[in-house]
Amino acid sequence: MGLRIRLSRQTIEILQMLLVRAGQWQHGYAISKATGIASGTLYPILMRLEKLGWLETSWEDARVPGRPPRHRYRLSPNGREWAKEELLAARETKFGKVAAREAHG
Amino acid sequence: MSEANESLVMRWARWQVRALARVWPAESRDWGEAIASEGEEIEQPIEAVGWALGGATVYLRALGTQLFEWLKMPVGQRGEATAGAPGPKRSRLFAVVTLTCAAVLLCLPEGREAIRTVVSSWEYYAEIDASQAELARLAEQAEKKNDAQLMAFAALGLEDGKRATGLADLAVKTEPRLFWIYEARRFWQNDMTAQTWTEKAQAADPQNAVPYLRAADAIANKIYFGMAERRTPTDPEVMQALSGNAEWMRLMDKAFRAPRYDSHYREHEELNREVWRREPQLTMTTILPGLSAHAIPYLNSLDRFTKLQVQQAEAELAAGHVEKAQELLSEAETFDKGMEGDSARYVWFFNPALSLERETALGWKAFYEQTGQPAKAQQAAQRVMQIKQRGTDAMREAQERWTKQNRGESNAWVVQLSAILMVVAVLATLGAVGAFEAWPGMRRRFGVTASVLSRAADFAPGMVLLASAVLVFSFLPYARAAAAFREGPAATFDQMRQLRMAYASLQAVTWRLAGPESSVFGWTVLTVVLSLAVALILARMVYRAMRKPAPQG
Predict the structure, then answer these.
(1) I want to staple B443 with a disulfide (CB 3.0 to 4.6 A). Which of A59, B87, B454, B501 is the partner?
(2) Is residue B68 situated within a structural domain?
(3) Is A96 a member of any domain?
(4) CB distance B42–A29 less than 8 Å?
C-alpha cells in the first residue's frame, strides 16, 4: 500500500487519464484538454503527485525549433499500483463513481 | 475578434507565463517553466488566456507556499545554510502571529483609547501641548462648520485668550443659550481678556451671583498676591485688606443679594459630553481638564465675606440695629441655600456651602443670645453641632474616596507599566528580529550580544502580546467610565469621580516614574528585581541539588 492521499474529483480524473495510457509520457496541455481541468488546478495536483512519488517527470526537447523544451509526465511503477488501489477505493465513493462513469463514457 | 487582436492577446498570454516563470520561487521553478512551455503549444487565444490566468494562480500558490516555508523557519534562518547554527529558536510564524494578535487587540476601540490616553498622559507630563493643538484644530473645524458647541468647547479650553474670546462671541451669537460660557472659563496667568469675559458674563446673566463673584475674585487675587510679594499674609490681614476694598465689597454684596447662584457646571459637563460623543478620538487630557478648569468662585472669598457679614450683623446688633442685623444674617443664609443647590457642588470633596452655613448658624446663635431668645439660641447651637457632624461625615467620606483613588492608582500602575513594557518589547522585537534577518552572519559569530539578541527574538514578540493584553484589560475600567460619561444623560457623582480618578491616577504615575521621586522609584524597582533574581537563583540551586541522583554503592 502506497502513500494514501485525499483524492479530489479532479485528481481521480487525472489518475484515470494517466492510467489509461500507463507508461506513455503526457504533456500538461494534453492532460488539461483530455480532462477539461484548467491549468490553475492541474499543476498543483501534478506537483503533489510528483512529491508523493506517484509521478515521474522529464523534459523533452522541443519538436518545433525556437520553442522551449516541454515537461512531460507519467505514473511511476509504484504510482500505477497505488493509483489503481486508490481508484478502486474511490469507485465506492460518490465522486469516484461519477468520475469513473465519465471516464468510461 | 480580429486576427490582429488575437495575436495581441496570444502575445500577452505567452509573455505573462514566461515573465512569471522568470520570477518563480526557485524551489518550484521547473513547474513555472513547464506551464510557460505548454503555453507555447496553445493556438486558441481564449485557451491561452485561461492557461495564463491558471498559471498566475499556480504562481501565487507557489509564492504562498514559499512564504509559509520561510515563516516556519526560525528567525534569521535562510534555508539549509544556516540551519542548526546557534540563534533564535522560535519561528518567524510565531513572531508574526503574536504580533498580529497584539495589533488586533490594540486596534479594538478599547485598545486605541488606552494608547491615546497613555500617550496623552505622557505628553501632558512632558509639557507637549497636544491638547492645545487638538483644541486649535477643533476650533478651525468648528468655524468652518459654524458649529456653536464645538466653538464653545474650544473657547473654554484654549489658552490663547484673544482666540478664545473670538470663538466664544461667535458661539454665543450662533447659539445664544451658550451665554454661560462667559462664566465658565478659567483664566491663565497674564490673560488680559479676563475682565472682558466677566463683563460679558454680568451683562448676559445679571441675576446670577457667579459673574459678580468672579469679578470679586479677580480683585481678591490681585490684593492677595500684592501682599504675598512681601510675605504670606495672615487670614485677618487678608480679611482687613478685602473689607477695605470698596469694589470687592460692592461686588460681593451684589452677589449675595443676587436672586440666583448658578455656576452652570451641569451645562459645561453636558457640552463636554456632547463634544466627546461626537469626537470620540479626543483624549481624557483634552476633555477632563476642561471640566477641572471650570471657573468656580473661590471658597475662601465666600467664607471671608460671610464672616464679614456676620461680624457686621454683630456690630449692628451692638449698635441696637436689630432689623439690620437680622437682614444681614438672612441674606447670608439665603445665599448659602442658593449655593447648596448648585450643580458644581459635587466637584468638591465636600459641599462648600457647609462652611458658609456654619458661619451663619454661629451668627444666628449670637444674635438670639443677645436678643434674649434662649430657645432659638439653643436651636441655633444644635444646628451648629449638626453642621459640625455633617462636616465630620463629609471628611470621612472624602477619606474613603481618597482610599479608592489610591486603589485606582494601583490599576494605573498596571496600565502605565504594561504600556512601557509593550514599547520596550516592540523595540526589542524590531531590534533583535531585524538584526538576525538583516545580518545572517550573526548566527555564526555568536557572541554575548548575539546571545542576548537571540533571547530577545525568541521572547520579545510574546512579551508584546502579553503586555498588550494586560494594557487593554487593565484599561477596561477606565474605558467603561469614559463610555458611561459619554453615553449618560447626566453623569452621576460616581461616574465623574471614577473618570477623574482614572485621569488623575494615570497622571500621577507619570510623575512617579519620571518626576522628582523617580530616583527613589528606580532604586525600589532595582532592589525588587535583584531580590527576585537572587530568590530565583537560590530556588534553582535547591531544585538541582534535590534532583541530583544519590551516589551509587
Answers:
(1) B87
(2) yes
(3) yes
(4) yes
**A40: nearest CB among B37, B42, B54:** B54
Q: How many CB atoms lie within 10 A of CB B153?
A: 31
Query: Rounded to whole angstroms, how far apart are CA atoms B85 and B95?
Result: 19
Instruction: Determine the structural domain holding residue A23 and report its residue range.
Output: 9-103
Cβ contact (<8 Å) for B55 and A40?
yes
Long-range interactions of B122-125: CB distance < 8 A, separation 24+: B122/B510, B123/B285, B124/B285, B124/B507, B124/B510, B125/B507, B125/B510, B125/B511, B125/B514, B125/B515
Q: Are strands A55-60 and A26-27 parallel, antiparallel or unpaired?
A: unpaired
Q: Is residue A3 part of a domain?
A: no
Contact at CB, A40 and B53, closer than 8 angstroms? yes
Please indicate, yes or no, if residue B90 is contained in any of the structural domains.
Answer: no
| pLDDT tens for each residue of chain B, 553 residues long | 444 555 788 889 999 999 999 999 988 899 999 999 999 889 888 899 999 999 999 999 999 999 998 899 988 887 665 556 678 889 999 999 999 999 999 999 899 989 988 888 887 776 666 778 888 999 999 999 999 999 999 998 888 889 999 999 999 999 999 999 988 887 766 677 888 888 898 999 899 998 999 889 888 988 988 888 888 888 889 889 999 999 999 999 999 889 888 888 888 888 988 898 888 888 877 787 666 667 778 878 888 898 888 999 999 999 989 999 999 999 888 888 888 777 766 555 456 667 788 888 999 999 999 888 999 999 999 989 998 888 888 788 778 777 766 666 678 888 888 999 999 999 999 999 998 888 877 766 667 777 888 888 999 999 999 999 999 999 988 888 888 888 776 656 566 666 777 777 777 777 777 766 667 777 787 888 889 989 998 998 888 888 776 665 5
ipTM: 0.85
Task: Kindly report whether the global pTM for this prediction surpasses the value 0.90.
Answer: no
| Structural domain containing residue B538 | 517-547
Does residue A2 form part of some domain?
no
Residue appearing with cell numbers 488586533: B104
Residue B281 maps to a domain? yes
In a domain, B470, yes or no: no
Q: How many domains does chain A have?
A: 1
Q: Cβ of A29 under 8 Å from any chain B Cβ?
A: yes
- When divided into structural domains, chain B yields a total of 3
CATH of the domain at A84: 1.10.10.10
| Domain final residue, candidates B33, B57, B72 | B72
- Say yes or no: B36 contacts chain A, CB-CB below 8 A: yes
CB B353 within 8 A of CB B345: yes
For residue A74, list its beta bridge partners.
A56
Residues B61 and B175 grouped into a single domain: no
